[in-house]
Amino acid sequence: MPTHHTAAKAAAAAALALTAGATVAAVPASAAPPNLSMTSEIRMTPADSSRTDRGYFNEQVIYIAGVVSMSKAAAQDTINHNENTIALRYWGDDTNDDDLLLGPVSPTTLFADTDGLHFERAATLSHLQLDEDSGTFENIGDSGLDEIYVGARFLDRNGNTISKVESNRITGDL
């Protein structure tokens, strides 16, 4: 009988070791995975046909659409728990420093899809805002052209950046 007890103890010890080794720390469903990638793209169109005295459109609508890569379930969980946010900043790209034109603002649309958390926003900016290279010093290096882009940041509930992306640039005499 001593062999039976020894074998039973060894089996129990092995089962306990397997159970202990298989233990996985529980992670809240709303926790964002680390190192998420983001993509975004902007496009611009006149708000209406009204123009300035010099022929520029009075207002332009800048549309941004982007995605934070994650599973559809994680994206829906992010929306449902509202613990993580996306902050958008509209910038005028300059040679030396960039001018903040609008923001931070939140997307007007969030939705989950198979490739991740999608975000969208349309912002109307005036010719005066878009013509951020109107001074002589600012025109050095870019021939007076304006460059617009949107920076998007995926933030945790404490405001820490999880991931970020800059959109494409739209260049023109805006």
Summarize the structure.
The protein has 4 helices and 9 strands, in the order H-E-E-H-E-E-E-E-H-H-E-E-E. By secondary structure, the protein is α+β, with helices and mostly antiparallel strands.
How is the secondary structure organized here?
Elements: H1 2-21, E1 38-46, E2 59-69, H2 72-81, E3 85-92, E4 99-105, E5 109-113, E6 116-126, H3 127-130, H4 136-139, E7 146-155, E8 161-166, E9 170-172
Antiparallel strand pairs: 1-2, 2-6, 3-4, 3-7, 5-6, 7-8, 7-9
Can you describe this structure?
- The protein is of the alpha+beta class and 174 residues long.
- It is built from 4 helices and 9 strands; from the N terminus they run H-E-E-H-E-E-E-E-H-H-E-E-E.
- The protein has helices spanning 2-21, 72-81, 127-130, 136-139; strands at residues 38-46, 59-69, 85-92, 99-105, 109-113, 116-126, 146-155, 161-166, 170-172.
- The strands form 2 sheets. Strands 3, 4, 7, 8 and 9 form a 5-stranded antiparallel beta sheet that branches. It has a 4-stranded antiparallel beta sheet with strand order 1-2-6-5.
- Strand 7 and strand 8 (161-166) form a beta hairpin.
- The protein is elongated.
